[in-house]
Specification:
2 copies of one chain form a homodimer. Chain A is α/β, with parallel strands linked by helices and 307 residues long. Helix content of chain A is 41%, strand content 14%. Chain A has a single domain, classed as Aldolase class I (TIM Barrel), CATH 3.20.20. Chain A has an 8-stranded parallel barrel, surrounded by 8 helices. In chain A, strand 5, helix 7 and strand 6 form a beta-alpha-beta unit. The longest helix of chain A is centred in the middle third of the chain and has 17 residues.
Chain lengths: 307, 307
């Protein structure tokens, strides 16, 4: 077995990626969820996105949510922005870690923003300059990195080429989104290898969906390849509204539960995280797909039957 | 990465383990499901169990189901039996591959059959003799091999000791059940290593549940350890009624989908398997938990949006 890392850095994306893909909930509820997550020991949280309220009403109150949220010491908060206007709002709100998205698949990118991948990369180059000029760091998230629901397989060399481009344009980090859960251990291996061969040092984060049951197998494969940064969403909150057939994000509890059992630290208190997932269910008024939320961790025993 | 196998042998357990843990369905429906599965290309099917109809009404018509089912060429069918009476019925029905179960956890074994693990192993020794005397092969399934919901961790050395005993008593094969989904990559590695260290040559099969999302990560780990035989249940049918908090079996489609994408053959036609899972949903009148059934394989694309 490959040497496994001692620590894995989880970025909790429930407050942004999760809530953005659920029915809107009140500002109070968003603040409560953010605060609950901030006290789990997680080191990174994707807090909000600054998008047009007409396009994504779930994030219309991003400024207020962020203003009211308790900023926990030792937690890195990030925001996602689609364009210059969003970047200006994020910077004005005080964010210094900011994410932008492009889809590796041209068809998927056009479907989302009516531009080619190349055109979006031109926009992103300008955004990176804007962010750097304001002292913020820029992460580029490459969606449909493991496959596109319209085009099918996405050539890992195409994704690696996008990484070349954004690194050249100054991106501080890259993330790879398995937007519709087309990732498998093989695809993870091929993508990570292709990217690493051409960009050995850029910080890489992987974002898996569990649409076809492979999320933790993919995570395990990535660990064996030396990847130590992953997105996950409390309770498995959210999905992708633009992606037909997509189911939710990898549940943070499921990732943490497996990692801790493997002796890999995350800094997260799993019980507190499960409480945050229970809170998310309460706030949304629906059941979330996380198995560890449902069944509890493997260490939570059933009282022995009386003889 | 460890060398992966070219072929993995899946035993489809939906007709027995799956249906045994769902609401009873008519005999006709069971025959239809068995026949649909027999034509998927799967090489092994756990067809029925011969248990007391009072204890498990779902299998009360096992004789008739088996008699009416089409026996496909090239498919090995097996039956599960709890005791001598069941073994005699299975032999009379013509089965030559027969499974018996014992739980590695004493508490769990007592809860199920009101006997200690040791007492059950004594019974199994006699059952093996009976089966061998009739020319049949005997597989011992060790339940709670990756953890017990009452006792917690189960020492892999205890499980390996059970294997020592049953191999001495003549068992032709052993299987390890993750009865309540407590298995993780670490536990799989520890168990397989402990068993292989003491019994390098006994054929081993693993049976995972997806209760905490780890089923495919466990399967991947087992592949890397050279294991090539797995149970899975069409659609994720069934669970364990005796196990609090247990969710369904690993869905056969999810296993096959990942394996095929990794270039590992199973002999199974994935489309035919998904049709069988759709049939299972229709026959049971409920949604099953399989992601690949829900979303389709990663190769099933969405029509491109019109420009």
């Amino acid at each position: 077995m490959a040497e496994l890392p001692d620590f894995v850095s989880i970025r909790e994306v429930g407050p942004r990626d999760g809530l953005q893909n659920e029915e809107p909930i009140p500002t109070d509820a968003k603040v409560r969820l953010l605060d609950a997550l901030s006290s789990t020991g997680v080191k990174r949280i994707e807090a909000v996105s600054f998008v047009h309220p007409k396009a994504i009403p779930q994030m219309a109150d991003a400024d207020e949510v962020w203003q009211r949220a308790t900023k926990a010491e030792g937690v890195r908060y990030s925001a996602l922005v689609p364009n210059t206007r969003g970047a200006q709002r994020a910077l004005a709100a005080g964010f210094t870690e900011i994410e932008v998205v492009v889809s590796a698949s041209d068809t998927h990118n056009r479907r989302n923003v009516n531009r080619s991948t190349e055109e979006s990369l031109d926009d992103i180059a300008e955004l990176i300059d804007l962010l750097h000029g304001a002292g913020a760091r820029a992460e580029v998230i490459v969606a449909t990195s493991f496959g596109c629901p319209y085009e099918g397989d996405v050539d890992p060399q195409r994704v690696a080429g996008i990484v070349d481009r954004v690194v050249r344009d100054g991106a501080d980090r890259v993330a790879f989104g398995d937007t519709t859960g087309m990732g498998t251990p093989r695809r993870v291996r091929e993508l990570v290898t292709a990217v690493r061969d051409r960009n050995a040092h850029v910080p890489v984060l992987l974002h898996f969906h569990n649409t076809r049951g492979t999320a933790l197998a993919n995570l395990l494969t990535a660990l064996e390849l030396g990847i130590t940064e992953f997105d996950a969403s409390v309770g498995g909150l959210g999905g992708c509204p633009y992606a037909p057939g997509a189911s939710g994000n990898l549940a943070t509890e499921e990732a943490v539960h497996m990692l801790h059992d493997m002796g890999i630290d995350t800094g997260i208190d799993l019980d507190a995280l499960i409480e945050a997932a229970e809170l998310a269910e309460e706030l949304l008024g629906k059941k979330l797909p996380s198995g560890v939320l449902r069944a509890g961790p493997r260490t939570r025993l059933t009282p022995r039957p009386t003889p």
